[in-house]
């Protein structure tokens, strides 16, 4: 009985999953395919699915349209810089929220959660003014510092730190470990799957971020990759979609590589969270 | 090596007193067991000695040092937790070595000490395994090794065997007592299991509701309980307690193994003591011994009898008797033991006490 009832359900489930996957994968696939097409083919109607001629020169065109190496470098510095700062602030904050009782703890954690709900578009103006006051506008600092503390990271890590049994921390205290050591040698390794997940989210967000660099930068020396790609769109009047798409492929390539290697950790992190 | 001293130690959580003024001396090199029902404050007391809980009031001394304000890591003690509390991301070697490294011991010395201890507890071939890859018994050994390697003055153990299965628990019990003899350090051991307490401790501290009920050796505790609580807590099955009509507000108790049971048809032996009639409700044959649950006018009474005496069937009428020397008397109100009481009569026929 059970098997009979479950079987059609399984099929429906599979079909739904395939549909959802297609919805997500198709734009991505279309970007990849367009990046290899010639411009006339891009505008042909009805559109072709696979490129008739595989045109690899689009990538060179995109790369040479601006100081792309500079953009890649900037993007990397910003994404990694933000990530390191966020780790350094989120770990102690999460540890304190998870493990200490102090006056105002709940209030402070509430404020942190509120920060989680405010999009950067709401608060960019005061931050811009602040950065401008410090003379940091149009430097990489203005892209890194405002993101130095992540409410999401603190929240995620706190949840994971709270699951560590008290006795483990007490054992460490009896082993004469300092709070600092407990944090970095005991808690952080236990929270590794969560840290990897958070690291990925953060890296991808800042690697792809277009809004913040758009506000804070005005010269190529400090611009990031998404801005470079956007400039492709504006450079020559008409939209050369194949080159833009080639630029986008360059943009997502590092993320694909990371996903490829971190897949196992990502899956584990989510299983861990839902347990 | 050190003696541990508690002076009027009080612990309250949000004004709710959990430990209510403990005075206790734990002699140097003793195996002291804190035993009591859950919530009696035994674990809290241990955690205060460890420094994991702050003392609300009173003093704790380890050796000749007052440790109230000394952090746990500097009290020169080691603790074994019920759930082992191993560091899950470190392998066995790192787990054992962690405390040594924190003391700033040179790497080479650390290594040789860990190997030495691993040898003692039989973990040498598991040093690079993670705790998740070990069995319960092996984890327990890692926890022990982690405590032993620091060569502390005092070992604290918080129900360290309760997560093990019965067979392993017995084995570890023996190992722990021999370890204690070998090391000669002071052991403070918390358990709710009176069998564990009786078999392992040389000094037993019975606690209830945040107070010490009695501090004594196992034999003394069994033979000479100071109050009703200790009398009923120590010994299995628990002591039978009956009201006693001869004396107002006095309770009478005897241990199940001291009661004698006989079919009513048999003639009673004339001896000073008590006897009463009843009916066997059920019985449990334990092997060498039999437990009889007997319904009497005074309520249900448990008698433990030797197997070699003839078995009595269920529903049979019986006569219970207890010798005067095996009787205990307690004040009904305070629960304190009353000494110098005597059974004045030996009523038989009426079945009264």
Brief description of this entry?
Chain A: It is found in: Cell membrane. The complex is a heterodimer of chains A (275) and B (353). With 275 residues, chain A is mainly alpha-helical.
Write the layout of secondary structure elements.
The complex is a heterodimer of chains A (275) and B (353).
Chain A: H1 2-35, H2 39-43, H3 57-64, H4 68-99, H5 105-117, H6 120-133, H7 141-144, H8 151-162, H9 166-174, H10 179-190, H11 192-208, H12 211-216, H13 225-235, H14 241-274
Chain B: E1 4-13, E2 16-26, E3 31-35, H1 42-50, E4 57-62, E5 65-66, E6 77-80, H2 92-102, H3 107-121, H4 136-148, E7 154-158, H5 166-183, E8 186-191, H6 194-200, E9 203-208, E10 211-216, H7 218-223, H8 228-233, E11 240-243, E12 250-254, E13 260-263, E14 273-285, E15 289-296, E16 299-306, E17 317-323, E18 328-331
Parallel strand pairs in B: 3-8, 3-9, 6-7, 7-8
Antiparallel strand pairs in B: 1-2, 1-4, 4-5, 9-10, 11-12, 12-18, 13-17, 14-15, 14-17, 15-16
Helix pairs in contact in B: 2-3, 2-4, 3-4
């Amino acid at each position: 009985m059970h098997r009979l009832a479950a079987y059609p359900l399984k099929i429906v489930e599979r079909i739904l999953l395939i549909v959802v996957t297609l919805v997500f994968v198709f734009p991505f696939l279309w970007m990849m395919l367009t990046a290899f097409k010639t411009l006339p083919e891009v505008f042909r109607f009805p559109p072709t699915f696979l490129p008739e001629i595989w045109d690899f020169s689009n990538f060179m065109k995109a790369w040479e349209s601006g100081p792309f190496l500079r953009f890649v470098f900037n993007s990397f510095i910003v994404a990694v810089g933000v990530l390191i700062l966020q780790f350094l602030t989120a770990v102690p904050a999460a540890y304190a929220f998870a493990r200490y009782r102090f006056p105002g703890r709940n209030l402070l954690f509430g404020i942190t959660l509120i920060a989680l709900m405010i999009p950067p578009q709401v608060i960019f103006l005061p931050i811009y003014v602040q950065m401008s006051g410090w003379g940091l506008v149009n430097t990489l600092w203005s892209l890194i510092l405002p993101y130095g503390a992540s409410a999401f990271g603190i929240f995620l890590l706190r949840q994971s730190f709270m699951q560590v049994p008290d006795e483990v921390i007490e054992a460490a205290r009896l082993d004469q470990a300092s709070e600092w050591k407990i944090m970095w040698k005991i808690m952080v390794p236990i929270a590794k799957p969560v840290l990897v997940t958070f690291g990925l989210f953060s890296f991808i967000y800042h690697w792809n971020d277009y809004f913040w660099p758009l506000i804070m930068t005005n010269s190529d020396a400090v611009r990031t990759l998404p801005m470079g790609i956007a400039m492709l769109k504006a450079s020559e009047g008409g939209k050369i979609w194949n080159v833009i798409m080639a630029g986008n492929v360059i943009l997502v390539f590092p993320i694909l590589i990371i996903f490829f290697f971190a897949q196992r950790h990502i899956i584990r992190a989510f299983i861990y969270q839902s347990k | 090596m050190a003696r541990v001293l508690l002076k009027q130690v009080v612990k309250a959580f949000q004004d709710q007193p959990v430990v209510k003024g403990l005075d206790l001396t734990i002699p140097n090199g003793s195996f002291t067991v804190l035993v009591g029902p859950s919530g009696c404050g035994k674990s809290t007391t241990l955690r205060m000695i460890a420094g994991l809980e702050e003392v609300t009031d009173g003093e704790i001394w380890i050796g000749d040092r007052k440790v109230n304000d000394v952090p746990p890591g500097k009290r020169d003690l080691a603790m074994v937790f019920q759930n082992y509390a191993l560091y899950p991301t470190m392998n066995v070697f790192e787990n054992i070595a962690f405390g040594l490294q924190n003391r700033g011991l040179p790497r080479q010395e650390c290594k040789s000490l860990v190997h030495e201890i691993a040898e003692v507890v039989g973990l040498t071939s598991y040093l690079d395994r993670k705790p998740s890859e070990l069995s319960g018994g092996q984890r327990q050994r890692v926890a022990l090794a982690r405590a032993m390697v620091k060569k502390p003055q005092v070992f604290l153990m918080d129900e360290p065997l309760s997560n093990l299965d019965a067979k392993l628990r017995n084995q570890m019990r023996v190992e722990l007592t021999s370890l204690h003899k070998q090391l000669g350090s002071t052991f403070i051991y918390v358990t709710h299991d009176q069998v564990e307490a009786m078999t392992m401790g040389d000094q037993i501290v019975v606690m209830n509701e945040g107070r010490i009920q009695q501090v004594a050796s196992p034999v003394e505790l069994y033979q000479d309980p100071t109050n009703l609580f200790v009398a009923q807590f120590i010994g299995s099955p628990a002591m039978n307690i009956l009201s006693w009509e001869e004396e107002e507000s006095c309770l009478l108790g005897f241990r199940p193994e001291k009661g004698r049971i006989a079919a009513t048809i048999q003639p009673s032996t004339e001896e000073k003591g008590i006897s009463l009639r009843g009916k066997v409700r059920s019985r449990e044959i334990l092997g060498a011994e039999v437990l009889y649950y007997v319904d009497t006018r005074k309520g249900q009474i448990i008698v433990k009898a030797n197997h070699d005496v003839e078995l009595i069937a269920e529903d049979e009428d019986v006569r219970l008797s207890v010798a005067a020397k095996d009787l205990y008397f307690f004040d009904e109100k305070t629960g304190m033991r009353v000494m110098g009481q005597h059974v004045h009569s030996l009523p038989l026929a009426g079945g009264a006490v």
